[in-house]
């Protein structure tokens, strides 16, 4: 018999699906939150389950359970931990752990892809094209590679995952993977459900774009939003909407959790999450809402004003326009224009603000981070030019 303890997201449940393809009813899969895993591991080992093999996927254990598993294996027990998070690499010093962050081809791994390879290498599961495809969809979604590849089937798979109870989703996928289908696709009912869900997500994200707060936390500028649903989609869209922010922190006060997302290669949100008893990927992580985190992310922004969105239907006040681009920060107007031989000049209320910038987006990023400025609408732009700069730069 096998006891699988895995994460409760798509990648974690994907591990359960792959394990059931290999072991059938000989495996018992339990899906956990990050906080719940260590309790399950401790309970399993204390029960003295020497006849069962413990498989942990997509989650890491704390130091106490690290020692418990080591002692358990030394006493003749069977255990393996398969993970892909950088924060778990230190466990590779044990012969029961296999933590791999990057594949041989340079692409990021997922727990499902690692477990699938493990089972094939151990000759416990025969590969098949449809399972290969399913595993790759999970991997691309979990690593956010789907967004780069525009692989919307991967995103839709995750959408479908959240529309069903975990066991129902698991059963549905097992039927697909063991039935007559030779390729992975959604049936007509699933497509209709997904279309309804996508419309709901779009409306939700549109509303949340008006509820983002900016705060300097440590060395980073964070965007903070309170949301209980659609964290991956929301984090991705807010990162694109406000690219001057280092990362997006999604607050779940009810669950006392924080989800962290970034699109910047220079920012590692797993390191940020580690400060608050969390971890994960470089660009997608989660942590507990500790007392310290609550004060920094929630209390400190409670009385702040949300970020204004850039005007998005302009014809004239357009970014990189050399004649000038107008922003507003509170009651101040910020004007960025290009001066030949000098670069991009930033003026606040007609007074030069700083040294010239070589790049427009560097100038914009600075005023957004320091002043929380937003691109004005065309009518403000035209009024401002008429009043102050009828012939700018001459």
Q: What overall geometry do the principal axes of the alpha carbons give?
A: elongated
| Structural class estimated from helices and strands | alpha/beta
Oligomer: single chain
What's the SSE pattern?
Answer: EHEHEHEEHHHHHHEEHEEHEEHEEEEHEH
Instruction: List the total number of helices.
Output: 14
Task: Estimate percent helicity.
Answer: 40-55%
> Can you tell me the residue ranges where pLDDT is under 50 for at least 5 consecutive residues?
none
From the alpha carbons, calculate the radius of gyration and give it in angstroms: 25 Å
| Overall pLDDT level | 94
Give the N-to-C terminal Cα separation. 81 Å
The total beta strand count reads: 16
Please state how the strands of the largest beta sheet are arranged side by side: 6-7-8-9-11-10
Largest sheet: 6 strands, mixed
Strand content: 15-25%
Topology:
Blueprint: E1 2-7, H1 10-23, E2 27-32, H2 34-46, E3 53-57, H3 63-74, E4 78-83, E5 97-99, H4 111-121, H5 129-142, H6 145-149, H7 152-163, H8 166-178, H9 188-208, E6 213-217, E7 220-226, H10 231-241, E8 247-252, E9 257-261, H11 269-274, E10 279-280, E11 284-288, H12 291-298, E12 325-329, E13 332-339, E14 343-348, E15 351-352, H13 360-371, E16 374-375, H14 378-388
Parallel strand pairs: 1-2, 1-3, 3-4, 4-5, 7-8
Antiparallel strand pairs: 6-7, 8-9, 9-11, 10-11, 12-13, 12-16, 13-14, 14-15
Account of the protein in words:
Strand 3 (53-57), helix 3 (63-74) and strand 4 form a beta-alpha-beta unit. Helix 4 runs antiparallel to helix 5. This protein has a six-stranded mixed sheet with strand order 6-7-8-9-11-10. Strands 2-1-3-4-5 form a five-stranded parallel sheet, with helices on both faces. Strands 15-14-13-12-16 form a five-stranded antiparallel sheet, with helices on both faces. It has helices spanning 10-23, 34-46, 63-74, 111-121, 129-142, 145-149, 152-163, 166-178, 188-208, 231-241, 269-274, 291-298, 360-371, 378-388, and strands spanning 2-7, 27-32, 53-57, 78-83, 97-99, 213-217, 220-226, 247-252, 257-261, 279-280, 284-288, 325-329, 332-339, 343-348, 351-352, 374-375. It has 394 residues and is α/β, with parallel strands linked by helices.
């Amino acid at each position: 018999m096998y006891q699988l303890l895995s994460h409760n997201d798509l990648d974690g449940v994907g591990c359960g699906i792959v394990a059931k393809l290999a072991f059938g009813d000989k495996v018992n899969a339990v899906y956990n939150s990050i906080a719940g895993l260590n309790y399950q591991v401790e309970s399993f080992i204390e029960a003295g389950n020497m006849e069962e093999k413990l498989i942990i996927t997509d989650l890491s254990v704390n130091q106490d359970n690290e020692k418990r598993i080591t002692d358990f294996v030394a006493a003749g027990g069977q255990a393996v931990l398969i993970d892909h998070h950088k924060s778990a690499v230190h466990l590779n010093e044990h012969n029961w752990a296999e933590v791999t962050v990057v594949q041989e081809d340079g692409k990021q791994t997922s727990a499902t892809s690692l477990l699938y390879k493990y089972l094939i290498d151990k000759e416990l599961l025969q590969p098949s094209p449809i399972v290969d495809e399913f595993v790759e969809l999970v991997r691309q979604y979990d690593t956010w590679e789907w967004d780069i590849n525009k692989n919307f089937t991967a995103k839709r798979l995750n959408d479908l995952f959240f529309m069903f109870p975990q066991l129902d989703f698991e059963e549905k996928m097992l039927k697909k993977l063991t039935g007559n289908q030779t390729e992975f696709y959604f049936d007509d009912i699933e497509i209709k459900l997904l279309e309804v869900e996508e419309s709901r997500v779009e409306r939700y994200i549109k509303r949340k774009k008006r509820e983002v707060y900016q705060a300097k936390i440590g060395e980073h500028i964070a965007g903070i939003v309170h949301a209980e649903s659609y964290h991956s989609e929301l984090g991705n869209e807010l990162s694109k909407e406000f690219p001057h922010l280092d990362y997006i922190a999604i607050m779940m006060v009810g669950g006392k959790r924080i989800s962290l997302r970034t699109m910047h290669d220079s920012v590692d949100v797993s390191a940020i999450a580690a400060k608050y008893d969390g971890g994960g990927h470089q660009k997608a992580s989660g942590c507990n809402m500790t007392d310290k985190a609550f004060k920094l992310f929630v209390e400190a922004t409670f009385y702040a004003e949300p970020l204004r969105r850039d005007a998005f239907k302009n014809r004239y006040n357009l970014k990189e326009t050399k004649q000038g681009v107008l922003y507003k920060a509170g009651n101040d107007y910020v004007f960025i224009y290009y001066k030949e031989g000098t670069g991009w000049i930033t003026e606040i209320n007609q007074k030069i603000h700083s040294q010239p910038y070589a790049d427009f987006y560097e100038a914009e990023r600075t005023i957004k981070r320091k002043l929380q400025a937003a691109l004005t609408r065309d009518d403000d732009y035209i009024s401002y030019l008429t009043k102050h700069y009828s012939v700018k730069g001459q």
